[in-house]
Design brief:
- With about 170 residues, this protein is of the alpha/beta class.
- It is built from seven helices and six strands, in the order βαβαααααβββαβ.
- The strands form two sheets. It has a three-stranded parallel sheet with strand order 1-2-3. Strands 5-4-6 form a three-stranded antiparallel sheet.
- Strand 1 (about 5-10), helix 1 and strand 2 form a beta-alpha-beta unit.
- Helix 1 packs parallel to helix 3 (about 55-65) and helix 3 packs antiparallel against helix 4.
- The chain is globular, with a radius of gyration of 16 Å.
- The termini are far apart.
Length: about 170
């Protein structure tokens, strides 16, 4: 039987849910291309202090693609955050793992491939880009919002949404 190739594009939540729902079908070759423009709390810290791509959305999709129990991995790697006022503040265990691995492995893609192997993922997970990007939204009233964290729940409609490149992360 020929497997159908399915590619899911998006951020961490929707892409993770789709991967989690589709990974059980043996007739599919799944791949997820995940946005790397997150600028929330821990992602901002990773971007600014470590000059790395934000990995929270990648982590969420890796957990969703894993053959291991989703809820156990989510609780262990995603929900628990460090609360000490140091370099780990706001980071969850999974994001800290990806950040540390990115300091010792030459390529962000290789970090993800290694985690796919460790988590026994049923889908390939890839970043949308290897360059730092920022998300921008122009609202219906003409106001332009910068950064995903500022765009999540706007008070106006968004007729235009676009990315821009910023600094290139350490590879």
């Amino acid at each position: 039987m020929n497997k159908k190739n399915v590619v899911i594009l998006g951020g961490g939540n929707g892409t993770g849910l789709n991967v989690r729902g589709l990974k059980m079908y043996e007739s599919l070759n799944l791949a997820a291309i995940v946005s790397t423009s997150d600028s929330g709390r821990s992602s901002a810290k990773i971007r600014e202090e470590y000059h790395q791509l934000p990995s929270a959305d990648i982590l969420r999709v890796l957990i969703s693609a894993s053959d291991y129990d989703y809820y156990v991995l989510r609780k262990l790697l995603y929900k628990k955050r460090f609360s000490s006022p140091d370099q780990l503040e706001y980071l969850n265990m999974g994001t800290a793992l990806i950040t540390l691995a990115s300091n010792h492995i030459d390529s962000f893609i290789e970090v993800i491939k290694n985690l796919e192997h460790i988590f026994e993922c049923k889908a390939r997970v890839m970043p949308m880009t290897l360059e730092m990007t920022d998300l921008h939204a122009e609202l219906s009233n003409g106001v332009i919002l910068h950064g995903e964290g500022n765009i999540d729940e706007p008070e106006e409609k968004i007729p235009e949404l676009y990315y821009s490149n910023t600094d290139t992360p350490n590879e």
